[in-house]
Amino acid sequence: MNPGLLNLQIPSGVPHPDTNTPLDLTDPAELIIYVIIPMMIVILYLVAIKRKRKIH
Fold first, then answer.
1. Which residue among 13, 49, 50, 51 is least crowded, i.e. fewest CB within 10 A of its CB?
2. Distance CA 48, CA 33 (A)
3. Per-domain residue ranges for the chain?
4. Mapping DSSP to helix (H, G, I), strand (E, B) and coil, where does residue 1 land?
């Protein structure tokens, strides 16, 4: 099937590549959501593994 024959539409109301903006890490909300929370999750995971190994 020739891809040129397909008529595709991007649904409205969902993000798509031409409407995305880069992260603005000067915004406190984005800094917390995209940097601080993932770092805390990783640290808590490593602490939990260390405690689990210590118990067993």
1. 13
2. 22
3. 23-56
4. coil
pLDDT score recorded for residue 7: 58
Compute the distance between CA of residue 51 and CA of residue 39 in angstroms, rounded to an integer. 18
Give the contacts of 49 (CB within 8 A, at least 6 positions apart). none
CA–CA gap between residue 27 and residue 15 (Å, rounded): 20
pLDDT value at 27 more than 70: yes
Please list, in sequence order, all residues whose beta carbon lies within 8 angstroms of the beta carbon of residue 23, skipping any fewer than 6 positions away: 30, 34
Asked if residues 16 and 10 have their Cβ atoms less than 8 Å apart, the reply is yes
Which residue carries 């808590």 as its tokens? 44
Give percent above pLDDT 90 in the chain: 45
